[in-house]
Specification:
- The strands form 3 sheets. Strands 5, 6, 7, 8, 9, 10, 11 and 12 form an 8-stranded antiparallel sheet that branches. Strands 1-2-3 form a 3-stranded antiparallel sheet, with helices on one face.
- The chain is of the alpha+beta class and about 525 residues long.
- The longest helix is centred in the middle third of the chain and has 33 residues.
- It has 17 helices and 13 strands.
- Strand 2 and strand 3 form a beta hairpin.
- The protein is flat, with a radius of gyration of 29 Å.
């Protein structure tokens, strides 16, 4: 009589690959957190391609591995329910704190880097546990490559920007001398016979430098260079970035010299795009020259690729992974709770979402809307902005203009505060000779606080009434740029922390005259004739 055949219980296959879901969740969070900077800061607009490149490099590295190595079944095994609850609560609390801090702009650089480093650490740990240490080591570069898209801390970036602005202005002036063009450096600007060409943050070269670092690292991975050759390519990429930006500034200066400063806006973006394209091609060529002369391995067939994908999926679903399930659900819960609390507080605090200043533009008053120069728009990137030309400023030469910009609540708004007259005007050749002096202007029966600045450049005098408000409250000018960037402790009245009260509005009125400073009354009358004020 044959013994009965015993059947092994069927192995339960999890419905969800929780390790993969955790990786997708943390990276979605990291990319979402960085996206606001990629949209708001042109210096990091290249960040959109970095996740795609990192994913492509990660897939290629996985397919090139012969085996993934041994996984760690102990870490992937079932844990007691108490452990799952504890891990889930701790992780949910950390996610809630980071997301709420990001929404409220509490130490934004530290929070952003913490979120990205959390995504990197969790990815490497999951790969090591479920794919083996060899796979984790192989994927280390693609995972770390994402850091090239994370914004630099301002206290580190701004000194570099300031140094590059001065260096570019000095070097461009020297090259213009070699070409027989009369020019001299005036702060962070180049004084030509046709006018001033300002070296703004966008023209400093930091954008080319950051993009060059990213692309230099990417091409080192693309061509599978050895470590020493990758370092050489990175150095060459940084050098090319600075050199091509210098060429860009030189071409813009020559354009201003031959066709007037006003013509720079017409070719600014075209020259910038050509220079960036040249930089990318140059880095690719150098990477190609440094690439090893070896026979390429045979490409995997579709069947082999499918089998490798099946192996990876099987390793990710080989255990029930209760701890990772708790992490995935905790991450989602933490983000939902943080954003719900932020939305509730914004509604309770009546956050400003529309501008309070309204320009009076119609056929009866003669005020005319003008095009905001693209360089100013790119530098400030406001939600909305206006440039208004009054009909008769009564200044002798009739040179006057008004600006109005508004920014909806955003972590980016704090950096708008560094674009104030006494900081920016000297950079384009103006000398501050008076101010800032507080002055109250009556608009619609309400006293509105402005500040009067007085500037001089040769025999030309400029009076500017300027004001900045955050969530409708006037901002006192007792602060410095270092405090805005977090390099120094700001005064409590500045209220830099928090997104809810970061809606920002700037109004400026500039009146110019030859040989004498215009009277304050002229600028006050212009403000009253152009703007009305409607709060709440």
């Amino acid at each position: 009589m044959n013994p009965p055949i015993t059947q092994e219980p069927a192995r339960r296959v999890p419905i969800f690959p929780w390790p993969a879901l955790v990786v997708i969740a943390v990276w979605s969070w990291a990319i979402w957190s960085c996206a606001e900077h990629w949209l708001g800061n042109p210096n990091y607009s290249y960040g959109w391609v970095v996740p795609l490149l990192a994913l492509g490099f990660a897939l290629r590295r996985y397919l090139q591995l012969d085996s993934t190595g041994a996984a760690n079944p102990t870490l992937a095994s079932r844990k007691p329910i108490a452990t799952q609850i504890f891990v889930g609560l701790v992780f949910a609390g950390a996610v809630f704190f980071l997301e709420y801090s990001r929404e409220q702009v509490w130490h934004p650089e530290i929070v952003l880097w913490s979120i990205c480093l959390l995504a990197i650490a969790s990815t490497i740990a999951i790969l090591a546990v479920y794919g083996g240490t060899r796979l984790a080591r192989a994927e280390l570069f693609p995972v770390l490559f994402f850091l090239t898209a994370v914004p630099w801390p301002p206290r580190f970036e701004q000194p570099i920007v300031s140094t590059l602005m001065r260096w570019v202005a000095e070097m461009t002036t020297e090259l213009l001398h070699w070409l027989g063009v009369e020019a001299q450096t005036s702060g962070a600007a180049i004084a030509l016979r046709s006018g001033l060409v300002g070296i703004t943050e966008a023209c400093s070269g930091v954008r080319s430098l950051q993009a060059g670092i990213m692309f230099g690292l990417a091409m080192g991975e693309w061509f599978l260079l050895r470590p020493l050759r990758r370092i050489v390519l990175l150095v060459v990429a940084m050098t090319l970035a600075i050199a091509t930006n210098l060429v860009r500034t030189l071409l813009l200066s020559l354009q201003a010299e031959r066709h007037g400063v006003e013509s720079v806006d017409r070719v600014h973006d075209l020259i910038g795009n050509v220079v960036i394209a040249t930089l990318i091609v140059g880095i690719w060529v150098v990477g190609k020259l440094l690439a090893p002369r070896v026979t390429k391995p045979a490409a995997l067939s579709i069947k082999q690729i499918a089998e490798r994908a099946r192996q990876l999926f099987a390793s990710f679903t080989s255990a029930t992974a209760p701890v990772l399930r708790a992490l995935a659900l905790s991450l989602i819960a933490g983000i939902i709770c943080a954003r719900s609390l932020s939305a509730y507080l914004e509604r309770r605090d009546q956050t400003q979402t529309v501008p309070f200043f309204i320009a009076k533009i119609d056929n009866t008053n003669g005020n005319k809307l003008q095009h905001v120069p693209q360089t100013i728009w790119n530098e400030l990137h406001p939600t909305s902005g206006e440039s208004i030309r009054p009909p008769n400023p009564k200044t002798g030469d009739g040179n006057a203009g008004l600006y109005h910009f508004f920014w909806k609540p955003s972590p980016w708004n704090r950096f708008v505060l560094v674009h104030r007259p006494d900081i920016c005007m000297p950079g384009v050749g103006w000398k501050l000779i008076g101010g800032p002096e507080p002055i109250d202007v009556s608009l619609d029966g309400q006293p509105i606080r402005f500040y009067a600045f007085q500037f001089q450049r040769e025999n030309l005098y400029a009076l500017e009434l300027w004001g900045v408000w955050r969530n409708g409250a006037p901002v006192s000018l007792d602060y410095q740029s270092a405090q805005v960037f977090g390099a120094a402790i700001p005064p409590p009245s500045l209220q830099l922390e928090g997104k809810r009260k970061s809606a920002t509005e700037i109004v400026a009125c500039t009146v110019m005259a030859n040989d004498a400073m215009p009277a304050n009354e002229i600028a006050v009358a212009l403000l009253q004739s152009v703007f009305e004020y409607r709060s709440r």
